[in-house]
Amino acid sequence: MLTKSRIKGVKHIIVVASGKGGVGKSTVSANLAIMLAKKGYKTALLDADVYGPSIPKMFNLEDQMVDVTVDETGKEFMVPKEKYGVKINSIGFLVPSDKAVIWRGPLAGGALTQLFTQTIWGDIDYMIVDFPPGTGDVQISAIQQFRISGAIIVTTPQVIAVNDARKGAEMFLPENMNVPLFGVVENMAWFTPKQHPEEKYFLFGQGGGLTLAREFSTTLLAQIPLVQEVGETAEKGGNLMDQNNALINEAFDHLADEVVYQLENAPIDEVEHEHENCDREDCEHSGDCTHDCSTCGHNCHH
Predict the structure, then answer these.
(1) Which carries the bigger pLDDT value, residue 219 or residue 287?
(2) Does residue 299 lie in a domain region?
(3) What is the CATH number of the domain that holds 82?
(4) Where is average pLDDT lowest: 97-111, 161-175, 241-255?
(5) Model pLDDT for residues 140-188, shown as the tens digit of each residue
(6) Using CA atoms, how far apart are residues 146 and 6, in angstroms rounded to an integer?
(7) Residue 231 · residue 184 · CB < 8 Å
(8) Is residue 54 part of a domain?
(9) What is each CA distance from 46 to 50, 55, 108, 126, 299, in whole angstroms?
(10) Any idea what DSSP says for residue 104?
(11) 49 vs 26: CA distance, rounded Å
């Protein structure tokens, strides 16, 4: 059995995945992280899409390079960028935006590991990880190495997109990578013109997200409408904080609440205890935390 690592200071890691590109996965990741931060949670966003990092653009940080600091042992660590209360790191801060990332799987996986472990994250309640599309080496490497609290699948309504999303969802099943599937986000669920916010046009079909959620016995977490100003804002390097659309804000507010609810109500049998200790040195369970953590009431690692 593989022993999975925890990221120092990070309570929960939630990965956002998709079966294919172009469904708005990075938009969902960015806006979910911003909404969690707005709700007062200490939030981080890790851009794990090593071949096509979009997060720097969405936070208007694409021309910035990584900052590095050295600890007392001489080891170098990356310092995350911070915007809208979200701590951010991305391969996009290591490679110029006009250069292609041409890496084989092991090299890409190694780069992602460094983003996880050699970044000074500090204390984080929720780390959102924007996975690359598909089910490749990068995703598998991350899931095998780190304790992932749960996964979100992003799809659009049309049949072809749902078919691809199905493959992404299958990766997290117990017989495969065994990561709790929190649910499905249906992006571009309908089109709403800026001038007529009460109108809905189902340009890409209807019901794909709900169909996928039912197939995997999970939840349709949110339906995100396709709103003209949102697309225009994203093209300019903007996100949830740069536009004031009630429909979008309500959708991501609901999504953030659903994620928090899922984590707060996770079944006890999904909690892993192997080789973990209580953080408190003065606790009698320090060094032997296989007990129910309510025994000491301290911050035992799960």
Answers:
(1) 219
(2) no
(3) 3.40.50.300
(4) 97-111
(5) 888 999 999 999 999 999 999 999 999 999 999 988 999 999 999 999 9
(6) 6
(7) no
(8) yes
(9) 10, 9, 14, 11, 24
(10) -
(11) 9
Is the pLDDT at 100 greater than 70? The verdict is no
Range of the domain at 45: 13-264
C-alpha span between 239 and 256 (Å, rounded): 16
- The CA–CA distances, whole Å, from 141 to 135, 138, 147, 273 equal 10, 5, 12, 21
C-alpha to C-alpha distances, 286 to 276, 278, 293, 297, nearest whole angstrom: 9, 5, 11, 12
Residue 262 has pLDDT above 80, yes or no: yes
In the chain, the amino acid numbered 285 is: H
**Regarding beta strands 67-70 and 86-90, do their DSSP bridges make them parallel or antiparallel, or are they unpaired?**
unpaired
Cα–Cα distance measured from residue 228 to residue 110, given in angstroms and rounded to the nearest whole number: 38
d(CA 103, CA 113): 14
pTM exceeding 0.85 = no
Residue 269 maps to a domain: no
Residue 116 parent element (H or E): helix 105-117
Q: How far apart are alpha carbons 186 and 154 in whole angstroms?
A: 6
How many domains is the chain partitioned into structurally?
1
Give the whole-angstrom CA distance, residue 18 versus residue 279.
35
Q: How many CB atoms lie within 10 A of CB 178?
A: 11
Exposure class string for 43-78: b at 16+ Cβ within 10 A, else e:
bbbbbbbbeebbbbbbbebbeeebeeeeeeeeeebb
Cα(200)–Cα(55) distance, rounded to whole angstroms? Answer: 29
Q: Summarize pLDDT for 236-245 with one digit per residue, the tens.
A: 666 767 677 7
The answer as to whether 294 is a domain residue is no
What pLDDT sits at residue 109? Answer: 61
Contact 130, 45 (CB under 8 A): yes
* Position 96 pLDDT exceeds 70: no
User: Alpha helix locations (H) across 136-293?
Assistant: 137-145, 159-170, 208-215, 228-235, 246-264
